[in-house]
Design goal:
Blueprint (H helix, E strand, L loop, with lengths): L1 H14 L21 H6 L5 H4 L1 E5 L3 H13 L3 E5 L2 H10 L4 E5 L7 H11 L4 E6 L4 H9 L4 E4 L4 H64 L6 H15 L4 H12 L10 H4 L7 H8 L1 H9 L6 H9 L20 H15 L11 H11 L6 H9 L2 H11 L6 H5 L2
Parallel strand pairs: 1-2, 1-3, 3-4, 4-5
Helix pairs in contact: 9-10, 9-15, 9-17, 9-18, 10-14, 10-15, 13-14, 15-16, 16-17
Amino acid sequence: MVWLGVVSDILIGIAFFSIPQGVPFGMKVEVPKETGLGRAMSATPSTATRVARVLVVDDELTTRKLLAAMLGEAGVSCKTAACAEEGLGILETESVDAVLSDLQMPGISGMAFLPEVRRRYRHLAFLMITGVDDIHVGIEAMKKGADDYLVKPLQIEIVMASLERALEKKRLEQEVENYRERLEEMVKERTGQLETALFQVERSYEDTLRALGAAIDLRDSETAGHSHRVTLYSAKIAKELGATEQELKTVAMGAWLHDIGKLGVPDAILLKPGALTEQEWAIMRSHAQVGFDLVKRIPFLSGAAEIVLTHHERCDGSGYPRGLKTAEIPIGSRIFAVADTVDAMTSDRPYRLALSFEEAHDEIRRGSGSRYDPRVAGGFLSIPMESWKALRQSAEIPGGESEHREGS
């Protein structure tokens, strides 16, 4: 029973592997300096004079000149346009930080000009100028994306204050977007690192489990290499039946570990040369439940654990431990039943030499619909005989287990 304790410790270690969870809602999270968001939030608000690139769009020449002159006095560089179409042309060729547009213009109005600017240049500040002091007009403009609205006659102090607020708002929005993009890059990078680490952990688990399967075979010299071969055979049948990659892994792991419960069977029973008594048979048959109890502790092997438990069930109900019938038996166990029979027949035993694959082929055909699931049996029978012989030969070659990993 020493073996069983060692295996149990290994499997418990695997079961308790966990990935740290994310930061809970409500917990204070400090922003890393490398993201730049900390600097953005603490920086001194920018001024309009530091940005200094404004486009004034108004159909009235006097208003354009007056506004350009006022902004120029405040140190702001201005471009002017007499209509929305001209304004769009300037935006295509000039670098601009803010647009001041009149509401009422011939052709494209300021309210129609606004969404077009927002669609093409979403980082620009946009101030709507109106001659009507109507709160509803301001609300409509803000809904369509304006940062503020100004009522004529314009006062330079109000224009500059509104412009500075709008530019600062856009600057902070840009900082936040840059931060979000940087976060996405960091998440993508960390996700890649995590996936690599998980892959390595999974491979380590698989290597450990394969070592356990090999230990089972070594303990019983009569079945040397059995776990390896039935894994190859089961995976090949499963692939023929159209199993997904995850289903292939489950079938392969279940086949590889199917006899792990035998580590809990005393040598005096497992290696007994003569016939077993009824009591000894009861202990021998308990290996399915013992194996299940070991493997079920590992979440990602839950499907394989079911195969370990039911790998001796038969479609006609003659198997154990539960006497299940076809539909009640997991598909992985039904696949294993065929693979196990084929390997048992084509392997040497103390009381006989190995039989041919042709004889195993005939046995599966005869048992289809009774001992074996007809669909699984059909999948096995549809694979050319030469493929099975080649697969058996590859199992005898060191490194031939690569087919197990690929599920071919």
